[in-house]
Amino acid sequence: MPIRVTSFEAEINKVKRAHWTHVGDAKDTLLSLMQHEAHVQAPLAWLGHIKELKQRYGMNYDRASLLIQPQFVVEKLSEITGGRAIVTTGVGQHQMWAAQFFDFVEPRSFLTSCSMGTMGFGLPAAIGAQMGRPDAVVIDIDGDGSMRMNIGDLETATTYGVPVKVLLFNNVGDGMIRQWQRLFYDGRLCVSDKSLHRKDFVMAARADGFEFAQRVEALSEVEEKLRAFVAFDGPAFLEVMIDKDADVFPMVGSGMSYSEMITGPFIPSRDGQESGGTRAGHQTASDMF
User: Fold this and answer.
1) Residue of 231, 257, 275 whose CA lies nearest to 81
2) pTM for the full model?
3) pLDDT at 222
4) pLDDT tens digits, one per residue of 1-31
5) 250: cis peptide before it, omega within 30°?
6) Which residues make Cβ contacts (< 8 Å) with residue 242, sequence separation at least 6?
7) What is the model's pLDDT at position 88?
8) For the chain, how many structural domains are there in total?
9) 209 in a domain, yes or no?
10) Closest Cα partner for 95 from 80, 111, 108?
11) For 28-55, what is each residue's pLDDT tens digit?
12) Confidence of residue 207 (pLDDT cuts 50, 70, 90)
């Protein structure tokens, strides 16, 4: 197959050494690849090693807290839907929690902007997914920061009768930015704290035509409200006031290697020591490495 060398060749081996590379015209390359069927079975020993690692270093969070932990909400949502829902997200901590704790059982069920960092992606993506799959349960798991970016699309959903479900995690700020500022900048917050703002998301949803628009503030109400939210026949909006100090772990900071990963207080560290402290804000970055 002829190879067309382009400027993208400079990207190869730029960060990691590749075992195999190919630079070519996208159309010709893809058509050529479609003619070949390659089935590579990972060695059983490697699969067993991965399974053991997952068991030893499994995801976890503060399950004893009396505050609403977002990870618990995602786990419960996964249980209620049986993992059979199309989930979209904005960008931030909620994006990570959705990826980590929702047990997807079908492919192509998670729509997120990944590392593109497109805040506000979740709601319009959910509307599009619902219109494409009218038979599916489509849930936008979003954050208060991302929701502010495209909140006008709440009216789009009700105007066109799109029965999307919007699950809003409200930690009164840009949680991911705030977490980084606590971890790496000695807790000096800048533009990440929205505690002085007065946005009432439930009232906004009702103003845009959501007949189901409710708020959860107590842990004991989470499951009941989630079930009603998922079962509602039409667009539904549920705001959950989560623990403002709930963090995403594991965390790999800028310039850090995976061996320097911060696992936090509830995920075992591979070096055998607790990594991240009981609250990230109580330590500086240098204390954690």
Assistant:
1) 231
2) 0.79
3) 97
4) 444 444 478 888 888 888 888 888 888 888 8
5) yes
6) 67, 68, 69, 70, 73, 169, 170, 171
7) 97
8) 1
9) yes
10) 111
11) 888 888 887 777 777 899 999 999 998 8
12) very high
Asked, for residue 169, whether it belongs to a domain, the answer is yes
Q: Which amino acid is at 211?
A: E
For 270-280, write each residue's pLDDT tens digit.
Answer: 775 544 443 44
Instruction: Report yes or no on 38 lying in a domain.
Output: no
Return the percentage of the chain with pLDDT > 70, whole number. 91
Residue 172 within a domain: yes
CA distance 171 to 239: 10
**Three-state DSSP string of the chain:** CCCCCCHHHHHCCCCCCCCCCCCCCHHHHHHHHHCCCCCCCCCHHHHHHHHHHHHHCCCCCCCCCCCCCHHHHHHHHHHHHCCCCEEEECCCHHHHHHHHHCCCCCCCCEECCHHHCCCCCHHHHHHHHHHHCCCCCEEEEEEHHHHCCCCCHHHHHHHCCCCCEEEEEECCECHHHHHHHHHHCCCCCCCCECCCCCCCHHHHHHHCCCCEEEEECCHHHHHHHHHHHHHCCCCEEEEEECCCCCCCCCECCCCCCHHHCECECCCCCCCCCCECCCCHHHCCHHHHC
Q: Across-strand partners of 212?
A: 236
Domain that holds residue 76: 66-241
